[in-house]
Design goal:
Layout: E1 8-11, E2 16-19, E3 38-43, H1 49-61, E4 70-78, E5 81-88, H2 91-107, E6 116-119
Antiparallel strand pairs: 1-2, 3-5, 3-6, 4-5
């Protein structure tokens, strides 16, 4: 059975998705956006929901509310403190954002923990 032509290609901010006809496999010819992405997980001391909200306001005021290269941002609350999981397109984009983020968190009294950094293996939405 030969490889069928794709039915459609949808484009969004972060990736292109090609849909093959039912029952036909699709072979990716281009890398997905997450093939080189980094997942970064932060647990900081003193990062309460109130301080998180204030940090977001300060980042927005600094023009970094939606920084270049950050594709996902998830804030989790556990035991009254915020933990953050982000996906970044590159280490360089993350480092550039950190130049703004770290001073803001320090100003707000957050004790920075060492982030867990890993390459993204796969992303499933829905």
């Amino acid at each position: 059975m030969g490889h069928a032509e794709p039915i459609a290609t949808a484009h969004c901010k972060f990736r292109s998705v090609t849909v093959a006809p039912a029952g036909q496999p699709h072979r990716r010819s281009k890398k997905a956006w997450w093939d080189m992405a980094l997942g970064i997980y932060f647990v900081h001391q003193g990062f309460t929901p109130e301080i998180y909200k204030e940090a977001l306001s300060k980042l927005e005021a600094a023009g970094e509310g939606s920084p270049k290269g950050r594709t996902y941002h998830v804030a989790l609350e556990s035991d009254g403190e915020i933990q953050v999981f982000d996906i970044w397109e590159s280490q360089e984009d993350f480092d550039a954002f950190g130049a703004t983020l770290v001073p803001i968190l320090g100003e707000l009294g957050v004790q920075l923990g060492e982030p867990m950094v890993a390459t993204v293996h796969n992303v499933i939405t829905g």
